[in-house]
Amino acid sequence: MKIIYKKIILVIVFMYFMNPLKAQTVNWSVETGLNVGDTFIDGQIISDINGTGLDVQINLNIVNGYPRIGAGGTSVNLVNSDGASFSLTFLNGSANVVLSNYLNLLQGEQIVVSNPDGENITIEETSSNAPPRMRVDGVAMTGSLPSTIVEDATAVVKETNNGAGTRWNASMFDVTGFSWTYNISPTGQTGNEGFSLVIDNSTLPVELTDFTATKKEKGVQLNWNTSSELNNDYFAVQRSKDGSTWEEIARLKGHGTTALENTYRYFDEAPFLDVSYYRLKQNDYNGHFSYSSIKAISIEENSELQIFPNPTTDIIHVLGANIQKSELEIMDIRGKTYTHLVDVKILSDNRWRIDLSQLPIGIYYLKTRVGSMRKIIKH
After folding, report:
1. Backbone phi, then psi, for 197, in 5-degree steps?
2. Burial level of 132, CB count in 10 A (0-12/13-18/19+)?
3. What domains does the chain contain, in order, with CATH numbers?
4. What are residue 222's phi and psi, to 5 degrees?
5. Which of 327, 316, 333 is nearest to 273 (CA)?
């Protein structure tokens, strides 16, 4: 999944509608050459399904003449067909797929959705009469609609409600196939279930509408917003001194799959002196990742603080504003604090003596709570 920036530009919007993504419900009658009501053919291969450029093979476990092509040719129907299954395999690539249950599950009915890639499956409830609703791998759907549960490569969906039951979608990102197995209710009631399929071989993005870095008195404030997210596991906040070598300084949990706007914030208390570069690494549940643009913030040395001798082998003297001992911090270029290893003596209101003899040779920064920073070189 790639991070994209959302820009309201008439030309871009016009081009989007002129060139829509290849993401639409599969019409099985058109793709298979069969009629509505016909049983699917085991092992049938469909070339360039839905105009995606992907070739697929269908494999079935047929029970009582099901799975069949349902109403309008867009659904896969299974009626009183306990153990019937439908499997689809992409022969020349992978795609994002969304399976929408065609009819409401009834109490006790069960669907098993799985894929061969070990990727996560996102189950999102789209409507329900009333709780208790359905369970996914034994976990009850709770909260306001739509509620979402992310499972591993196999998701067992079972209806617990009486009446019309629950509507839901199963989404899988960048998979080479899937299977759908149907089990009717053990109570003997008439079962009628199925699904429709959307295939999308485009990149479904996390829409990052804003990413800012702002210098504050005591560090750098990072803010970013998303207008939608798909399979978003987490954001890693990365920092660099040169814009080339990066380190992770924080990790913020994503919101999975959602069409809602979300805001993220992180405050860096230990930016580099001179220039700090920041970027976001957005990570999916399946290990895919992408990067945001890079932001640069300049942190200048405070001329009010004077340090001598600098470089030093052990002792430095600091002249500056009237600051308390508790407001002093010594840290390395990565932000790790070494204050506990130095001995600080206040000689007067604006003069300190600091013993650095216990520190390894290297570059350090003296930082105060009011944001003043100076570089120290220890030989």
Report:
1. -130, 130
2. middle
3. 22-200 (no CATH), 206-299 (2.60.40.10), 306-378 (2.60.40)
4. -110, 130
5. 333
Print burial letters for 301-331: b (CB count within 10 Å at least 16), e (below 16). Answer: ebeebebeeeebeeebebebeebeeeebbbb
DSSP β-bridge partners for residue 156: 112
Predicted confidence pLDDT, tens digits, the chain (379 residues): 555 544 433 332 322 323 334 457 899 999 999 999 999 999 999 999 988 888 999 999 999 999 999 988 999 998 888 889 999 999 988 888 989 887 767 777 889 999 998 878 888 888 776 666 788 888 888 777 767 787 889 999 888 775 566 788 888 877 899 999 998 766 666 677 889 998 876 544 577 888 999 988 778 999 999 987 877 889 999 998 877 788 899 999 998 877 778 899 999 887 876 788 899 988 887 777 777 888 888 876 555 678 889 888 999 988 776 666 777 888 887 778 888 899 888 887 678 889 999 999 888 888 776 556 778 888 8
Give residue 293's identity as a one-letter amino acid code: S
Assigned token pair, 200? 């999308």
d(CA 115, CA 223): 36
- DSSP strand pairing (134-136 vs 85-90): unpaired
The token pair that represents 12 in the structure block: 């871009």
Closest CA to 3 of 286, 227, 252: 227
Closest CA to 206 of 117, 116, 291: 291
Separation between Cα atoms, residue 369 and residue 143, nearest integer Å: 43
Tokens coding 258: 């959602």
CA atoms within 13 A of residue 184's CA, in its CB half-sphere: 16
Q: In one letter, which amino acid is 126? A: T
